[in-house]
Structure formats: C-alpha cells, structure tokens
Amino acid sequence: MTAAMHVFDNGAALAEGLAEAVASTLSAAVAARGKASIAVSGGSTPKAFFKALSGKAIDWPKVTVTLVDERFVAPDGDRSNEKLVRDNLLIDAAAAAQFEPLYYPAATAEDAAAAATKQTAGTGHPFDVVILGMGGDGHTASFFPGGSRLAEALDPATPRGVMTMEAEGAGEPRLTFTFSSLQDARLLVLHIEGAAKKDVLAKAEAPGDEAEMPIRAILHRAASPLHIYWAP
Ligand SMILES: O=C(O)[C@H](O)[C@@H](O)[C@H](O)[C@H](O)COP(=O)(O)O
C-alpha cells in the first residue's frame, strides 16, 4: 500500500500539524464510540509533538493513552518511555487522559508483558491512533533486526498483545505490542525527522527482508494506510 507523505519545513511545524491530525481523529472517535485510544512511541523524536498534542481541546478523560513499546525499566528512570510520556504528553489538558503503562514491577519481562497484555486487553482492537518511530537500523516499536522474537512479533497470526523482545541494539529487555496490535490503527503514523532517517526510509521502501529492516512490515503489509510525517 502506498504511504502518504506529509512533509513540513521544520520539526515545530510538523509537531503542530501532527497534533492537529491526531486531535481530530481522537475527537471523532469519542463522538462515534464514546472513547478513543492512542499508542505512542518513545525515543527523542516525539517530544515536540507530545507537547503540541497535550494542549489540544479534546475530551481527554475519554482518551486512553498507552505505549507502542517500553523498556523493562522502572517508570522513574530516564530510559522509561512511560516517564517520557508523563513528562511531555500527560500534562496541560492531556493530564486528564487515562494512561495504561506497559511496564509492571514484575520479576521478569515475561511476567510484565503478560500483565500488560491483560491490562490493555480492552484498549485498541483497533487503536484509533498509532504513532510509530523508526531507528537508524530500520526498527520500529521494538521490532529490532536480530530481535529474540522478531518473527513472532511480525507474524500476522500472532494475537494482539504485548510481548518481550531482546536485541543487541535494544538496550534493556523490551515490552512491545505485536504487529497485529498496531497495523490496523484507524490513523497509522510513522513520525521521523532528519535527512538520515529519510535515507533509512528510502532503503526500507526498496525490496528486502523484513528481518533486515522490520519497518518493512509496516511499509509493505499494514492493513491501514500509512501516513509518514517528515521534516528536515
Ligand atoms: O522505545 C523506543 O526507543 C521507541 O519506541 C523506538 O521504536 C523509537 O521510535 C525509535 O528508536 C526512534 O527513536 P528516536 O526518535 O530517538 O530516533
């Protein structure tokens, strides 16, 4: 499926443009179904978008925010995506949103993934909004090249839910929604910035194995149209 490219002059313009599109989608979901859900990625790219979205006039108490993926670290640590979201998105008007974490203080990442799957079972199916990022190695979510359970994570037959992933480039053990959980979002977005990420995208769009660049699974076989938001 051909992706729709949304190109902006700079990161600030992209943040506002993406926040507007997401706010519109979430408000439409609340109007149609009485609730809305959004799964966001961590990393360094989304901060300005989070802050732009946090001030939007949405019926936030009816919106559930969760994460596309998480590092298996406590939510007060600097590597925590939950901390990133609490500090940059769940502020201002968006402080009234519901939040469903993926990290749970379990003995193992597997136990935390099982808890996250149970706790998020009523959210999504499909998500109203999914915001994906992409690493320089072509990973998205925690679908890393060489990942311990990559084939299972990308398998369309794998049930929706949260699973563990370990990989050389991932740092801590990861908790990630499966491909099947993310790929049919009503608004499916890939948010990347900079020339280097644009080059990575071009390589990923060329024919090649998903195992080499897992973002290819989203680019080539997501059920929903993909909206790529990019600024220099
Ligand atoms: O937990 C994470 O790190 C993210 O979910 C991950 O998938 C991220 O989107 C990419 O690594 C891009 O990260 P940057 O925005 O920092 O380049």
TrEMBL record:
Domain Glucosamine/galactosamine-6-phosphate isomerase: 11-221
CDD domains for this protein: 6PGL
Free-text function comment from the UniProt entry: Hydrolysis of 6-phosphogluconolactone to 6-phosphogluconate.
Keywords: Hydrolase
Organism: Pararhizobium polonicum
UniProt cross-references to SUPFAM superfamilies, sorted A to Z: NagB/RpiA/CoA transferase-like (SSF100950)
PANTHER family reported for this sequence: 6-PHOSPHOGLUCONOLACTONASE
Protein's name according to its UniProt entry: 6-phosphogluconolactonase
Pathway membership, UniProt: Carbohydrate degradation; pentose phosphate pathway; D-ribulose 5-phosphate from D-glucose 6-phosphate (oxidative stage): step 2/3
Gene name tied to this protein: pgl
Lineage: Bacteria, Pseudomonadati, Pseudomonadota, Alphaproteobacteria, Hyphomicrobiales
A Pfam cross-reference name: Glucosamine_iso
EC number(s) stated in the UniProt entry for this protein: 3.1.1.31
Family according to the record: Belongs to the glucosamine/galactosamine-6-phosphate isomerase family. 6-phosphogluconolactonase subfamily.
Reaction catalysis annotation: 6-phospho-D-glucono-1,5-lactone + H2O = 6-phospho-D-gluconate + H(+)
GO function terms (MF aspect): 6-phosphogluconolactonase activity
Any one GO biological process: pentose-phosphate shunt
InterPro entries documented for this protein: 6-phosphogluconolactonase_DevB, 6PGL, Glc/Gal-6P_isomerase, NagB/RpiA_transferase-like
